[in-house]
Amino acid sequence: MKTLLATLVLVILAVSSAAGAEKTAPSLKPVERDGKWGFADPAGKIVIPPQFDYAGGFSEALAPVLTGAGWGYINESGEMVIPPRFAEADLFAETLAAVKTGGKWGFIDHTGKMVIPPQAMIQPYSAPLRFTEGLVPVTIGHRYGYMDKTGKVVIPPQFVVTAEGGAPAEFSQGVAKVEIPPTWGYIDRRGKMVIPYQFQEGRPFGNGLAPVAVKGKWGFIDKSAKMVIAPQYDEVEPFSQGLAAVRLGDKCGFIDVTGKLAVPLQFDQTERFSEGLARVKSDKDQKWGFIDRAGKLAIPYSFSNAGDFAEERAWVELDGHGGFIDPAGKVVFTVNKPVYFTSPRFAGGLAPAYSQGKWGYVDKNGKFSIKPRFDFARDFSGPTAVVRLGKRYGLIDRTGKLVAEMKPPAALGESADGLTQFTPDLRGKNWGFVDSSGKTVIGAHYIVPPVEGGMPPRFSQGLAAVYLKGKYGFIDRQGKLVIAATFDEARSFAEDLAPVATGYRVAVIDKTGKVVKQSH
What percent of the chain clears pLDDT 90, i.e. is strictly above it? Predict the structure, then answer.
């Protein structure tokens, strides 16, 4: 990590990962009324009447519900699309959900088809029973390994869980931490030990670095197991945008990717930086304020809660009311019920807001410039925003005019770089792109990568990473494959460069696919 390459890769990964991880929170939440369960919208209005004996949350547009006949799954319209017949059921992840029948667990797909038959080795722990990056833990005796989505055990059971209430590690960025007491190591998706057992405790990789504990202190290693930031902290968080929060004793600060203390250890609680400011909390006052990158308190401790800045606005809670402040800490406007923001942030000067059962858009002064009338609304991206009226998805302009409409069951996803993701049906198996007029410019030829947090392809700087036959490549805005699908991992372009990986060799490529920098 002392090389220019490592720093460049981390910075680009931080930017692209943050963009790719952005998801819309489920709009319906399970609620209980008089012993029965249904679902309510963000304002608490019941939209699926209480009728079930129990209900789980929505995931991949389906939610498990319990009836007298057993567990089944409903869609967001409340329709029972997978009939109740299971003894237990979990949430969907990576297109599969764990269900129990005949005393054993197996996995079904979105149609309810049993794609991995129930078997004794599939056992739940304290964590959800789900696939991540195409693998799920399986157990024989007191040891666990991993099974792929075809039902084949690809990593034989050999690892143990020693912590009370613990669970096998999930894969993240191609590796998983595993334990053979008293130490931890990291394996790849083939079960190969890529970082030997040598750490007392470890956590998943983030932005190319993983926190590890040695003799009670935390530091950071890279994927070659090289200790790049020496163990010295009592607690650390993963890197985000080139900085990581660290704690020593009862005080927190920030380090950069070289390990240098960028913000001194002086705060009780810290969050990530956004637009040059980071949230910090004072335990004495139980209030939040904001610091700049030098660690200076730029906005005093005044708020009972606060969010990140976006377009010079940050959501805060003050004296029991929500509102937005500017970078100087001035309250620009307050928000009172019945107006709600599920993820309060501005894009292009507008933010989606929920009032009296419908969505609209407020400007940066808090005025509804587009009156609430939609059943769903996304942030603006360029000149348009994705909305839904009933079962119909469409695009609106900044005046609220509907400029494009999709015919059900087609649905729209996120917009970026002038193009919007679309899928022919709500299952979202295949994705393509439409332009701001709703015209299909790239057919729905691409699948979501079968990994945890896998997302449909998304354009950035004129190119989009796509998943083809187990490898990543890049297409242009006409859908032409301009960089061959040869990579095991790929991230979006930023500043005309994109990080890619083949095996455990990380590289940075330009828009022609030429390797600019490469790890050794």
Answer: 48
Residue with tokens 């990964």: 13
Domains present along the chain, CATH in parentheses: 1-119 (2.40.128), 337-448 (2.40.128.630), 461-520 (2.40.10)
Residue 125 is inside which H or E element, if any? none
- Encode pLDDT of 244-288 as tens digits: 889 999 899 999 888 999 999 999 999 888 888 989 998 888 899
Closest CA to 461 of 420, 417, 491, 514: 417
Rounded Cα–Cα distance for residues 205 and 193 (Å): 15
In the structure encoding, which two tokens stand for residue 384, read together?
Answer: 């348009």
Give which of 65, 2, 59 is closest to 31, Cα–Cα. Answer: 65
pLDDT in tens, 321-349: 888 999 999 999 988 766 677 667 888 88
The pLDDT mean for the chain works out to 84
Q: Which two tokens stand for residue 51?
A: 């009728």
Q: Measure the CA–CA gap between 278 and 245, rounded to whole angstroms.
A: 11
The mean pLDDT of 18-45, rounded to a whole number, is 71
Half-sphere exposure of 73 (CA within 13 A, CB side): 24
Q: What is the pLDDT of residues 432-479, one digit of tens each?
A: 999 999 999 999 999 988 775 678 999 999 999 999 988 999 999 999
Q: Determine the residue type at 27.
A: S
C-alpha 351/C-alpha 368 separation (Å) is: 9
